[in-house]
Amino acid sequence: MKRKRRWLRSAGRFGILKIDKMGKNIKRTLFKTDSGPLCPVCEIKNGIAKAKMRIRYVDGFKIRNEIDVGFTLIHHRNCEDEDFPKSYIPEGEIWIDRRFRGETRFLLKSLRTLSRLRGNLDYDSARKVLREKYTRRGPMPDFVRREKRLKDGLKLKFVDGSIVRRWLDPEFVLGGHDLVYDYIPKGEVWAEAGVNRKEYRYIAGHEVFERKLMAEGMDYDTAHDQAEGKEALWRSEGRNLGTAAANYSYYSI
Question: What is the pTM of this model?
């Protein structure tokens, strides 16, 4: 059966903007990525479809290390839900972490639906509808790729996020824990196994630190911001955890 849409391909590499800490000096650097098809999803603004957007598959690890620790799996410049505007993404483009290229269609479908729902609902309500609409029924495949018991008693699991997104939550990105997500068992922290292994400590550290703050009574938004700040610091310290983080329970992951 023929595809309903024709996906146009283009080859080549794409240079993205590297912004220094002050945001003043901008220079072009090569992220060794390629352009993808014309996105079959349109940019949604005020419920109105604007124009087709170009997909770029990018090095998410390098972006999280050098530009934006909040970059997850898929973003575009005008995402209304973004806490940190993705101003480094050119107009008319959607960036997808190239390690999750195989989920392109699913990620685009979820992005389109979430954008439409956010026109009338708050994020939590829209996410609930998204889960009801796109999660599969039936037995869930084994999705745990690695697990470790931490010194503080928590169980850390590195999971196949593609399975988690299809069976439990389309909006599961990079990591989470039981104090935020109702489908994660008590005392567990999950981290995405599909990222570059060099990121395991950063992502696991973020989630463990965030959970610790929430267990002490801090609200999610504040705990998340502080955990993200810690993660950004760890990434900037020689692009590794550095000696300052050596005492954290997840350091030996």
Answer: 0.74
**pLDDT tens-place string over residues 211-236:** 999 999 999 999 999 999 999 988 88
- Strand runs labelled E in 128-210: 144-149, 155-159, 175-177, 188-192
Helices 123-134 and 104-117 pack at an angle, to 10 degrees, of 140
Cα separation, 183 vs 246, in Å, equals 31
CB 211, CB 150: distance < 8 Å = no
What size, in residues, is the chain?
253
pLDDT in tens, 78-99: 655 445 568 889 988 899 999 9
Beta strands in the chain (DSSP E): 15-19, 26-30, 34-45, 48-58, 74-76, 93-97, 144-149, 155-159, 175-177, 188-192
What does residue 159 show for φ and ψ, rounded to 5 degrees?
-115, 155
Task: Note the helical H segments in 179-219.
Answer: 200-215
Structure tokens at 115: 């954008």
